[in-house]
Amino acid sequence: MSRIYESMFIIAPDVPDDKKKELVDKVVSTIRERVGGELEESMGDKGLEIWGMRKFAYKIKDYTEGYYVIAYFRCDGQKLQELEYFYRITPEIIRWQTFRRFDLEKKERKGEAKKQQEEIIEEKVE
Q1: Cβ-count burial of 70 within 10 angstroms (0-12 exposed, 13-18 middle, 19+ buried)?
Q2: Residue-range domain boundaries for the chain
Q3: pTM above the 0.70 mark?
Q4: Which parts of the chain register pLDDT below 70?
Q5: What is the SS3 assignment for 14?
């Protein structure tokens, strides 16, 4: 079963803009190729939310700010460690967090159930 995940990662502020774009593209390709996931197009801009530079509440690896990006995607969760491994070996990505979005899955299931109920009502009317 395909599940919905959200992955936020922070790129170091001293990385040039073109390299930031390249890193975001690498994360997207890792999600598609290694994890076997697909970006959730209905969330953000093509499955991505670029928050840009934000100040930290405390220092992270001697930085006081970072470039935030959030990716929303679907996958079965079996190869999620491939994404974590990519984050770990990429020195420009200084912090990351990936978690399952139960709330979005629940909302989706409710929408599907409502649609099925409407179809049943339409069949009875006919």
Answers
A1: middle
A2: 3-125
A3: yes
A4: 1, 42-44, 111-114, 116, 118-126
A5: coil
For 95, the 3-state DSSP assignment is strand
Q: What is the CATH number of domain 3-125?
A: 3.30.70.60
R_g (Cα) of the chain, nearest Å: 18
Residues making up the chain, counted from first to last: 126
Cα gap 94→61, rounded to integer Å: 7
For 84-114, what is each residue's pLDDT tens digit? 999 999 999 999 999 988 887 787 777 666 6
Distance CA 49, CA 4 (A): 15
In terms of DSSP H, where are the helices of the chain? 17-33, 80-89, 102-125
Write the single-letter amino acid at 74. Answer: R
